[in-house]
Amino acid sequence: MAPPAQSHRSPSPSQPSGKGEVSDLKTQLRQLAGSRAPGTDDTKRDLFKKVISYMTIGIDVSSVFSEMVMCSATSDIVLKKMCYLYVGNYAKHNPDLALLTINFLQRDCKDEDPMIRGLALRSLCSLGVANLVEYLVGPLGNGLKDGNSYVRMVAAVGVLKLYHLSASTCLDADFPPLLKQLMLKDKDAQVVANCLTSLQEIWSLEASTSEEAARERETLLSKPVVYYFLNRMKEFSEWAQCIVLELVSKYVPMDTEEIFDIMNLLEDRLHHANGAVVLATIKVFLHMTLSMTDVHQQVYERIKAPLLTLVSSGSPEQSYAVLSHLHLLVMRAPYIFSSDYKHFYCQYNEPFYVKKLKLEMLTAVANESNTYEIVTELCEYVANVDIPMARESIRAVGKIALQQYDVNAIVDRLLQFLEMEKEHVTAETLVLVKDLLRKYPQWSHDCIAVVGNISSKNVQEPKAKAALIWMLGEYAQDMQDSPYILEGLVENWDEEDSAEVRLHLLTAVVKCFLRRAPETQKALGDALAAGVTDFHQDVHDRAFLYYRLLKYDVSVAERIVNPPKQAVSVFADTQSSEMKDRIFDEFNSLSVVYQKAQFLQPSYMFTDKEHRGPFAFSEELGNLSIGTEPSDAAVAAQRVEANDKDLLLGTSEKEEGHGYGSNGSAYSAPSYNASTTAGASQAHFDLVSIDQPSTVHPPVSFAIDDLLGLGMPSAPSSVPSTLQLNAKASIDANAFQQKWRQQPISLSQETSIDPRGVAGMMNPQALPQHMQGHSINCIASGGQAPKFKFFFFAQKEDGSSAYLVECIINSSSCKVQLKIKADEQATSQAFSELFQSALSKFGSA
């Protein structure tokens, strides 16, 4: 029987059909290597294009390296460029191959064509192979003395590349003095700029170890050098002008006359078409006039027009960068920009990040004269179909209201938002109304009349629900249905996921009880009973606090929980004035865009993944890792490139399947009956209805249960678990990942960690090594302060069950969230007790 005919597909012209095509390329290149026949260069071009195309899409074509080098013997500048591109790509990772390129690159550095000399020198310096630095010294020295400015320009940057490869070789060859001489005498402005850039970086790095380098760095800020650059300013390119202006901003003039001379010389740079040049010039003006108050204010007036022009022209990215700097200036001098508020109105076609920043600008420039117009514009945005934009607009209106400008009209507008019956609008408005009532209690009657018509069932967002509950408790005497609304919310306690809402609900019920006791008695009893068995530590503690306060003395409880309120005059600022000043010092940098000062967050950390700390999560895959220790107590941990989404869940995710009294939490509180507090006032027990029979929970060992010494049963000493673990258990990282993905969560708990243990986490290996001593192995770890995430593995001694643990530690609150998955569900609780026992000993030894 004849075999079936094979179908043939024509290969794509841009992709090889297999290794055979790369071999064909190699053969064709070898045949053309020594050929000088007419049309050879055209054929080479086609082959070179194919090689570069394959290299670009990630196909390994390093096997044709020697053939590409042999074919580089040509005067065709296009072939040279493609060859240099190919060589630069593979030489960094293949030092042995890079050695093959030295001869032809050195030969090209002596070519008659200055373009080829420059390209060859650039490629030679870009090989990045430390073993070949001795081959760079000669070509660089010749390049700095070359008659063509392009070659000198490349050589100036090449010296910096050589310094990063081998600083000693660069300094021994006396390249910095040559660069300085070239910088001060060369006629080509771009060569001067490249020399300045290289010298600044070299001398800055050497200044910490060399006094001579520190002195040389200071000479760059001397008056003759600065004036030399200023007089040649118009010759420089835009990039070079930014470098020079950054240098000038660090220069300290001798007197005010010199300041005005420099500012007059740079006046025309404010009208430059390039935004970077304008911002660099503004930085010079601002820094030089800091000590001259009147002149500094005039500078603000002078730079306003160029900045507003840049905002309205150019790309959205440029607009955002300029707006970030403008926002910084507005925060320092809002009155200067208050008349230009219309420039900050949002356009329909702007991206959201630009609109959001403009809203911040509008809130900053609002004053008595323009508040009405600004709020009217913001109210138009509230009806926007873009929900994030609508939310930000409501917040902007609220911020303006808290600045005490035309409060009457703004409060009316906010109350109208509540009548729009849009869930996101209602949620944001409730949060703002809460803040307004804290600052303007006199508006409570009007606000409560509208808020009272809102059904709590229509408010789902935690912050909004918490705000509504706060108003129900704070103004219980003015809201007729307040006790009954709170009672309904308490009945749905188990369905409420947000701890913030539960905390507010506890407080609101107590406040309502202190004012309308008969109507709130049942709700208070239910709330306290639910609170003392809540798995969240803060809710648990607050419920006990309120219970004991009421039990001790109701009048004392009222003075503590519901004291006379004073209007809030100023809300806390998100940034300190010191932080704003530090950011202002770093004007025209990423610090302004990210709103983070460099002394807290060095600029390279914005972009460099190598500087994100020992627990840094990779943004792409979540690189969870703990390095293996060589000691006997080493942690059996492996680097995991995790692609399992379950392993990478954020630390703020909701607990799956939580139950307040049955989840095995170490914070489950003991229930109460009349016999445990026989000596207490019977009236108080009836008051809060805590003496009802309830399910008995295991007692806990935390001192919080005897917070006020009210005779709670003392916690017995912990009983050692009978569960024994296999000290030699191990699992492959991939197997752990697959097992974690397949198994359901057996137990989800929250516990605490000793503060001394938190301090011990400064050493990333400390906790894994500690748990290893208890036969619990760390598989992976990640995160950074204040939240760290660990994955642990343990196995029952007889091998019948494996235990997988996700442990999230909050170092700021000393709280630990645990998720345990087990082959044997029945032993999950026993393992949890063993795990928590081991964890509680961390740092206490």
Automatic annotation (TrEMBL):
> Where is it located?
Endomembrane system
Primary place of residence? membrane
- What InterPro entries does the entry give? AP_beta, AP_complex_bsu_1_2_4, ARM-like, ARM-type_fold, B-adaptin_app_sub_C, Clathrin/coatomer_adapt-like_N, TBP_dom_sf
Enumerate the spans annotated as Beta-adaptin appendage C-terminal subdomain domain: 723-840
Q: Which Pfam families match?
A: Adaptin_N, B2-adapt-app_C
* Keyword Protein transport assigned: yes
Q: Where is this region: Disordered?
A: 1-41
Q: Which GO terms describe its biological process?
A: protein transport
The GO cellular component terms are: endomembrane system
Q: Which UniProt keywords apply?
A: Membrane, Protein transport, Transport
Coiled-coil segments, which residues? none
Domain of life, per lineage:
Eukaryota
Where is there biased composition of kind Low complexity? Answer: 1-17
Key word Metal-binding present: no
Q: What is known about its subunit structure?
A: Adaptor protein complexes are heterotetramers composed of two large adaptins (beta-type subunit and alpha-type or delta-type or epsilon-type or gamma-type subunit), a medium adaptin (mu-type subunit) and a small adaptin (sigma-type subunit).
Family indicated by similarity: Belongs to the adaptor complexes large subunit family.
- Indicate what this protein is called per its UniProt record: Beta-adaptin-like protein
Source organism per UniProt: Salvia divinorum
Q: What is the lineage of its organism?
A: Eukaryota, Viridiplantae, Streptophyta, Embryophyta, Tracheophyta
